[in-house]
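[Automated response] Your request has been received and processed.

Submitted sequence:
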Amino acid sequence: MFSRLLSNDLPRNKLLALILLAILVGLAVAPFMFPGVKALNVAAKVLIFIVLVAAFDLLLGYTGIVSFAHTMFFGIGAYGIAIASERMGASWGALAVGVAGALAVSLVLSLAVGLFSLRVRAIFFAMITLAVAAAFQTLASQLSAFTGGEDGLTFKLPEVLMPSFEPFENEVLGVLVDGKIITYYGLFVVAVVLFLALLRIVNSPFGRTLQAIRENEFRAEAIGYRVVVYRTLSSVLSALFATLAGCMLAVWLRYNGPDTSLSFEIMMDVLLIVVIGGMGTMYGAVIGSVLFLVAQSYLQDLLRLGHDATAGVPALSALLSPDRWLLWLGVLFVLSVYYFPTGVVGRLRARSQQAAAPRTVREKTS
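Generated structure:
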């Protein structure tokens, strides 16, 4: 049953399986194990980025397409929820309309971008998607009547999802359950379902064809596959999953603006996470998101502790200043790429294959 849920794409490494299980359990009990607003926000952001990065991995890791328009679809999802909820009020119907409208817009745009751009060379497609994403961000900033402009949109959700909603009078495991925690568990369920759906897609015949196109596009076309059609479908699917991740972000924040979901920095974060976790693995989206977002959120706190502990050594204390957290984040990224060139998941799986190779040889010779 477990293998079927994972589409028979098991971690194939004991350490990797333990890490993934620890992450799953940690995210499942995060509101109770790590109480506090910051910890809960980090856990929710991890869930959202797992879906966003996995969707991008479908495009880059499994199809070999470099696109910079991923955050555009992420923003469309967030704006769909924000605009519908702001105009229709706090209701489940508004959320449904927001999700459906965002998916429809993303479907049309991704089809247009795919059909018109995927016939060109990879670098030109990347530049086209970058231009489209930049144009969309500018449009979102200027259409104040719909998007709220630079100020964005703040909206309310159904009462059950609001922090003021408290279903229990007493604390549960030392934590007062409110609408924010209910929202978190809603995101948790959605993230698990969407991740399993993406895992199913990449391990289906369609996913295998995408990988064949990634490895040798001309050979795939020579044996009868319509490469443009498959690449366009991959682009559309990736866009739709990114849109759903954007919807999750808007529901969690109850706000959306251009810098919140359309920023190019988000696109860079997604690229870094894919590289750290491992391209073409799906599981890399999980591990990469946790490593990157936890480092991004808590590196300043760790540096502050180091800065205070080395106050007597001026040079070292200055180097460990919390203001230099971006420098240390860059160092950690360089080290991760150097020691894990195929990502964390790729490295762990390669070690398992190396360990299994002598065993296979011994079995054949015996």
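Summary generated for your ticket: The two ends are 34 Å apart (CA to CA). Residues 227-253 form the longest helix (27 residues).
If you did not submit this request, please reply to this message.
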